[in-house]
Amino acid sequence: MAEGEDLQTFTSIMDALVRISTSMKNMERELVCPVCKEMYKQPLALPCTHNVCHVCASEVLLQHGHLCCDPTSEPTSPAATPSTRSPRLGRRAVPKPDRLDRLLKSGFGTYPGRKRGAVHPQTVSFPCPACQRDVDLGERGLGSLFRNLTLERVVERYRQTINISAAIMCQFCKPPQLEATKGCTECKSSFCNECFKLYHPWGTQKAQHEPTPPTLTFRPKGLMCPEHKEEVTHYCKTCQRLVCQLCRVRRTHTSHKITPVLSAYQALREKLTKSLAYILSSQDTVQTQIAELEETVKHTEVNGSQAKEEVSQLIQGLCAMLEEKRATLLQAIEECQQERLASLHGQIREHQAMLENSGMVGYAQEVLKETDHPCFVQAAKQLHNRILRATDSLQSFRPAANASFSHFQLDVSRELKLLTDLAFIRAPEAPVIDTQRTYTYDQIFLCWRLPQHSPPAWHYTVEFRKTDAKAKGLKLWQRREEVRGTCALVEYLDTDSVYVLRVKGYNKAGFGDYSEDIYLHTPPAPVLNFFLDNRWGFNRDRLAISKDQRAVRSVPGIPMLFAAERLMTSCHLSIDLVIGDVAITQGKSYWACCVDPSSYLVKVGVGLESKLQEWFQVPQDVVSPRYDPDSGHDSGAEDTTVEAPPPYAFLTIGMGKILLSHGSALTSRDPNGCTVPLPPRIGICLDYEQGKVSFYDAVSFRELWECGVDCSGPVCPAFCFIGGGALHLQELVANKQERKVTIGNFAKLD
């Protein structure tokens, strides 16, 4: 039983040792200098939070043309003897003394790391081998860096743990040297027992030096300021740097947040402890993420190989097509060549027949010897035709075929350009929202376009969400996927809300970047859809309503000229009125219209249906002293004891301006009126229960004016014209020509 317990204890101890050994082996990566790939020796802390050996940093600066002081210890120190220095120092090209004198006399200075030949002080840039960035070391170069004593201690403990440190020999023994048993921080040397007594005689000041374990790396007792050689006592939060008392009072740290080093120690220790505890408590998550990364590595290897194979097949297909095309073109040239050669060879034979010793000439000479007339005629007839053809060929000689093949030349400039431009397809660039065509009404009509040189997109994804300042977290994005074209309808929105929208494109290379977010405000009330009433009341001589009953234009014509003739005799111009074909009896309603900026005078608003019918029966005057259409009642009435809301509420628009009133009603004699530019669309919102009507800039939904109106009966939208003018009602987004297509319970445009 005891043997089993001993075996279990031994196994546990061995497992613990294995874990410790593995942990130490893994930690070795943190203790290796990125330059020499060896464990740190006198590491310096760079401003970029990385570390590098002092000797390595000096060598890097020397390679970049900077002069550095000797990074080793003082020459009088036993630790600075040639036998204990780094072997890399023997390979370093040290400047000659006469050259150093010339550099110093020329104004080079004594700061380590200053550029050769620099007369004026300049900052030193150090290329960090870890992050591959240039780190600014200031004018002092390496002299401004702190020595990382903590890292040195960790390296020394690590060496002792894995038992790789070699025996330290006494630095004062004559050969053969004895193993060192003591060290002295003041002397920066390691001694055997006899040499320690010899160099620390009794009764001298050196006898008070306290012995330490032998080492080759002697560190100061505390961290010293590189500039003033004083112990650091504070931490500058602004510069994120340890400072001494002298640094603290310098002008460089004026108005900086400086705290005692103890406070900085406690704060950083607490943060580091919490972060380390979080990492240790999340080991399962780390393992899961490592597994996910390893799986991603596998997918990357497989997908990379697949992509290479696809590219190879495509290029091979192109090569095969080119080879096939080459064979076809060469065959065409070969056929043409053979045809021409046959014609030329035939022509040569014809000309050879005309030679004196040719067969045709000899045969003709023999035929001429024939004396029998019938026989001669029979033979000479055929021969004469051949002779005529030969004679014509001789007189009008031209080769039977052209030797040039210029029309078989290929123009491959376009193909070469295509091959030159042959590259991997890119995802679409971020779309640009078209703010001129995008607007909000009953729904959101969103338009966009791709940048000029962007790769094409197969389809788009539109994302939107409602913004709520009171909500603690952001709402999730809603999506309309696979939208064809460059516009989309976004429906089922809340009134009087702000929505943020964005778009991204997709093609074979994947999704591109999102467009910039656009914020759109929905109307303050449900949209009222109506048409202009063309059945009764309006003056058909001066008003023209479109066939779709969505637009109206005032065309005064000849009656306007007659009215202008009577203006000089104090006659009055008439107001032409047109109303909507619906009456509002409850709730809140919103609608919008666009007024032509060149209109002379237009009034948009609402009115009681009964009063509007009376208006049609008795047309009103513009400047009548007895009637003000904006006040809603007879301004000359004697009974003014009861202030009732007006039956009409109109916003006056003219010559591209809107006339606003500082009071509750707008009158033609209001001296406090002011004008604002006419927006592209005017919005009207009627709250029937509250008896209130509001006018908006329908683009930004900025309120322009608000007033009361009598809602004791049905209320109708109304529009008035004085002189020439035009307006049209805002088209519903739902009536756009783009048709909606439903995919997965979501709507998109076809």
Mean pLDDT: 78
The strand line-up of the biggest sheet is 23-24-35-26-31-32-33
Structural class: alpha+beta
The tally of strands reads: 37
Low-confidence stretches: 70-119, 568-572, 621-642, 662-672, 738-750
Principal-axes shape call: flat
Strand percentage lies at 15-25%
What Rg is obtained from the alpha carbons, in whole angstroms? 50 Å
CATH architectural arrangement of the domain at 532-618 and 645-661 and 673-735: Sandwich
CATH superfamily of the domain at 532-618 and 645-661 and 673-735: SPRY domain
CATH class term of the domain at 532-618 and 645-661 and 673-735? Mainly Beta
Number of helices: 14
Written overview of the protein:
With 750 residues, the protein is α+β, with helices and mostly antiparallel strands. Among the domains are: 26-67 and 122-166, Zinc/RING finger domain, C3HC4 (zinc finger) (Herpes Virus-1, 2-Layer Sandwich); 263-396, no CATH class; 432-522, Immunoglobulins (Immunoglobulin-like, Sandwich); 532-618 and 645-661 and 673-735, SPRY domain (Jelly Rolls, Sandwich). It has 14 helices and 37 strands. The strands form ten sheets. The protein has a seven-stranded antiparallel sheet with strand order 23-24-35-26-31-32-33, with no helix packed on it. α10 packs antiparallel against α11 (373-395). The two termini are 82 Å apart. Mean pLDDT is 78; it is low at 70-119, 568-572, 621-642, 662-672 and 738-750.
